[in-house]
Amino acid sequence: MAVVEVSIIPIGTETPSLSRYVAECHRVLQKAEGVKYQLTPMNTILEGELDKILSLVRELHEVPFRAGVQRVVTSVKIDDRRDKHLTMQGKVKAVEEKLKSAF
Amino acid sequence: MAVVEVSIIPIGTETPSLSRYVAECHRVLQKAEGVKYQLTPMNTILEGELDKILSLVRELHEVPFRAGVQRVVTSVKIDDRRDKHLTMQGKVKAVEEKLKSAF
Amino acid sequence: MAVVEVSIIPIGTETPSLSRYVAECHRVLQKAEGVKYQLTPMNTILEGELDKILSLVRELHEVPFRAGVQRVVTSVKIDDRRDKHLTMQGKVKAVEEKLKSAF
Amino acid sequence: MAVVEVSIIPIGTETPSLSRYVAECHRVLQKAEGVKYQLTPMNTILEGELDKILSLVRELHEVPFRAGVQRVVTSVKIDDRRDKHLTMQGKVKAVEEKLKSAF
Known about the structure:
homotetramer, alpha+beta, Alpha-Beta Plaits, 4-stranded antiparallel sheet, 3 helices, 4 strands, 29% strand
């Protein structure tokens, strides 16, 4: 299991607004199976089997091109741990628990 | 107002766990004024006046060194918009509204 | 054609040095076909057909695990342009030419 | 000493070309003192005292706004090592030396 952050920036759009492209990516995510995801103010975070996530990211990368954009910068950050089962919830919980206890 | 994503990775730790360093960064954030923040599974997102955020990020970058780490890779992504008041909540809401309406 | 930046950070390596992992990744790149690459002080940049690059990146992501590392953070940034043939050299040249002429 | 990667993406530029903005950032860098820099196909890498670099990055972040852009996404990655003097050249050399020797 991996937790992966993705942000997709269309370049050369007429206005500074990107939300329509992010929304269209989330329509693709809504139909995807076996991958959890969370929209954040700076990116979308995915959780699941790494290769399933990466093929989904590849599909998301195409979304702005389908809307007529000619250039896209897609950033992906993979957090992949093999000694422990990594989940979005587990990562946040581990920090919150440490915050409750002394450092 | 800017929305800024920060992730701080200590290099050369003895174990793969990073949550204690993230928690210590959040202790710094808890004492900071004038900056909103949100912990996500891949980073922490800050909202506020850009220079205030960047000086806070500079402070956070030092946290692992105080814990004895010798190398730190800090990634920062700034989303800065001058035609509109940018907030964490506003960015997420803009996507959610587009998801409710046809694309 | 796409130009893709990749950086692979092993977590929990006990010492701050990462060059042995980067070198091992470059041994994989040396054997790869159809993809140009350039080592920079912060990452490695690849140029070629996007899907070929992404499967190579997937292979590079495994390199630290083979060396016994238990956690890896891999960052990938894709620059993909469909209106023009994008190359590493072309991107740098475009900037250098603009630097020679007035802005 | 730190080695820092910076990439500045203007949003809403109507055309996909970014080289004029990168060139204008490099005009600022040409006048800066005490910071070495290297243009790569995906970003610009800076080497020097961390706080000097970060204030220079802050200045570079404003460049697209001066050219009329309304939104800018600036990505910064800091590699900061306290056990060793980190330089762009030293980081690349360390990998090249390892490549020459067996792993």
